[in-house]
Write a structure and sequence with these properties.
The chain is an alpha/beta fold. The protein is built from 16 helices and 13 strands. It has two domains: 139 residues, Rossmann fold (3-Layer(aba) Sandwich), CATH 3.40.50; 287 residues, no CATH class. The longest helix is centred in the middle third of the chain and has 22 residues. The protein is globular.
Length: 437
């Protein structure tokens, strides 16, 4: 299946500043598949080393960090020649071999022409757990997320829709022949999500029940990771938070509140468990900014935040919402619809390399997302239907004189002015192309 990160991998391959690449991302989001396909297509040879499948590979790194010796031993064990400029050396599940992570420093310094990609699902967790000597400044990094909506459309053989809307003029209303089809695909995406196995199952079968089986298996695997990789004392707390996220997202004021995770538990008792889930890539934390000034990171309130899941399909099964509930838009879905849409938009923004925050003024006004773009702060208001009335967005524009902002909803594409701010009304199904506008 097509994944946009392949274009970044191509740039990395030919970059003069290339270093060993660390590719991180939540488990089962497609890292191994993508790197293998990339290696097979772009190099004469791919040499694959999986530290989880075969722990014996780790012994090669135990003696010292002489990269020539390491390569020589890998060649003997794999019975393959590893040549600089011709071979892609792929270290998979590298978090299982901490010394291999440390060795990347020496590969960077002494064997620069060798292309190395390392993948790890729980790398962030392992670095903190094992006190790994991380090669700061000696690696390039990329993050892979579950498939976004654009990739989902392409997987469904709808490249034509992508081409049609790549340069769609903002002053032309989108006809129903396109909009209804895209709304249907968006609902499917809310149901299926972007985990590659779930998407492929949907394409192959069109059966929501089979999709649910896949998603529930993934959730179970994540639960097994809690027990296998987290400190024993933290496992119950991790499960409490994992169960709490969908419930807290569905509330009108969806600020994450520790006391709602487990009665009687304080933030100091749960913070480590929350951080573990973040390090594992299963959740994302978006922080409050009350004074939106560049850089936003310096204004963020780390004590006031929302939590989103890495994938909307996983959010759906974690919330026990059936596919039929979304298709028929029952009362349960209407209650949860805002959470779905917010989580969807957040995930789309991060795949576009945005770093979103949210703005709130007291308890009276809130803008769902704000992010930096070329030293400008862009407000993004999200609505789950066609109603785009947004007093908070108007208040933000009036107060902070933003040059541009977006209202994302099911309303047709348009542009207007809000308190001096150029406001783009963009359908939710075109969030993938937000930079065009």
């Amino acid at each position: 299946m097509y994944r946009e990160i392949t274009q970044k991998l191509l740039k990395w391959k030919d970059s003069k500043r290339r270093k060993p690449l660390l590719l991180t991302g939540v488990r089962q989001c497609g890292k191994t598949y993508i790197v293998k396909k990339f290696g097979e297509k772009e190099f004469e040879k791919l040499v694959y080393v999986n530290f989880e499948a075969n722990s014996n590979y780790g012994a090669i790194f135990d003696y010292d960090f002489d990269v020539k010796r390491i390569i020589s031993e890998l060649e003997r064990v794999k019975k393959e020649k590893i040549q600089q400029g011709k071979t892609l050396l792929f270290f998979d599940e590298i978090q299982e071999c901490p010394k291999a992570i440390t060795a990347l420093k020496y590969f960077c310094e002494e064997m620069k022409e060798l292309h190395i990609i390392c993948a790890g699902s729980l790398l962030g967790v392992a670095i903190k757990r094992d006190s790994i000597s991380f090669p700061v400044g000696k690696v390039n990094r990329m993050q892979l997320y579950p498939m976004n909506f654009k990739e989902f459309l392409i997987a469904n053989n709808e490249e034509g829709l992508i081409e049609t809307f790549r340069d769609w003029p903002i002053d032309r209303a989108i006809p129903e022949i396109y909009s209804e089809k895209l709304k249907k695909y968006l609902k499917d995406f809310y149901i299926v999500g972007g985990m590659p196995e779930a998407v492929q199952t949907w394409i192959d079968t069109g059966d929501y029940n089979e999709v649910d089986e896949i998603l529930n298996e993934i959730v179970k695997d994540y639960g097994d990771d809690f027990s296998k990789h987290a400190p024993i004392s933290e496992v119950p707390k991790i499960r409490w938070i994992w169960d709490s996220v969908p419930v807290q997202l569905a509330k009108e004021n969806n600020k994450f509140i520790f006391s709602h995770v487990k009665a009687g538990k304080r933030s100091s008792e749960l913070e480590n468990a929350l951080q573990w889930l973040k390090d594992a890539g299963l959740i994302s934390i978006i922080e409050l900014v009350e004074k939106p000034e560049v850089p936003l990171t310096s204004e963020a309130d780390k004590t006031y935040f929302k939590v989103y899941l890495s994938d909307v399909g996983l959010l759906r099964v974690r919330a026990n919402i059936s596919a039929e509930t979304i298709i028929e838009e029952t009362a349960l879905y209407i209650k949860f619809k805002g959470a779905f849409v917010e989580n969807y938009v957040y995930n789309e923004l991060v795949t576009l390399d945005k770093m979103p925050y949210f703005w709130r003024s007291g308890n009276k006004a809130e803008v769902d997302f704000i992010y930096e773009d070329k030293n400008n702060i862009i407000p993004v208001e999200v609505k789950s239907a066609e109603n785009t009335q947004a007093k908070s967005y108007r208040q933000f524009c009036k107060k902070y004189n933003s040059k541009k902002g977006y209202k994302l909803s099911l309303k047709n594409i348009a542009t207007n002015e809000t308190e001096g701010t150029e406001t783009i009304s963009l359908p939710l199904y075109l969030t993938w192309n937000i930079d065009k506008y």
